[in-house]
Amino acid sequence: IEPHVVATTPFARIEAIVAHKGKISNILIEGLDPATAAGVVRIENRVVAGPSEVINHLRGHQTYIGKSLARKMDLKVGDTFAVVVPQPSSDSVRSFVPKKGSFMVTGILDLGKYEFDERMVIASLPTVQELGGIGSGITGVRLRMADDFAALTQVPQLAAQLGPSFVSMSWFDVNQNL
């Protein structure tokens, strides 16, 4: 499979709660690696407000958010919003400690799927790792294949190589409902 892979990038995804102007909502914050994401993730054509060079603007607490989340939370480019990430308590296995953070809306995205547009926040990988308390941990690795359609045959081979404790999905698997 290696000859078919032209670029890779790690990512981390955490669940959180966003609060802004008295409204709250659950969100997914996905951290992308600014050093490697541009070779794999192509979302520049999804920007509806803010700078189109998404990866270049993922520094510190700058984010891009889905358009439905922006509408629901009344967020515009330049606004800041608070997030709360539940983390396990060291005192009890049944409780959690809220970790608070804040982000600034750098841009708004039309991700093409309502579920993503309503919940997705994209930030830098180091920021998400720190906020999520996961150190240098990652959720997964995205691959760019030399031929987009090669992923349909290569992903099952990759899954077999990695073993049953890993999940491998192609772009087709992720977007199958479309």
Indicate the proportion of strand residues: 35-45%
- Topology as H/E string? EEEEHEEHEHEHH
Instruction: Give the % helix.
Output: 10-25%
Q: How widely separated are the two ends? A: 27 Å
Shape: globular
Biggest sheet overview: 6 strands, mixed, barrel
Q: Supply the helix-strand structural class.
A: alpha+beta
**Integer average pLDDT:** 86
- Report the uncertain regions: none
Strand order of the largest sheet: 1-2-7-4-6-5
E-strand count? 8
Summarize this structure briefly.
The protein is of the alpha+beta class.
Lay out the secondary structure.
Elements: E1 5-20, E2 23-32, E3 47-49, E4 62-66, H1 67-73, E5 80-88, E6 96-109, H2 114-119, E7 120-124, H3 125-132, E8 140-145, H4 151-162, H5 171-174
Parallel strand pairs: 2-7, 4-6
Antiparallel strand pairs: 1-2, 1-5, 1-8, 3-6, 4-7, 5-6
Features:
178 residues, alpha+beta, six-stranded mixed barrel, 5 helices, 8 strands
Walkthrough of the structure:
The protein is α+β, with helices and mostly antiparallel strands and 178 residues long. Helices cover 21% and strands 38% of the residues. The chain has a six-stranded mixed barrel with strand order 1-2-7-4-6-5. It starts with a strand and ends with a helix. 30% of the residues are buried.
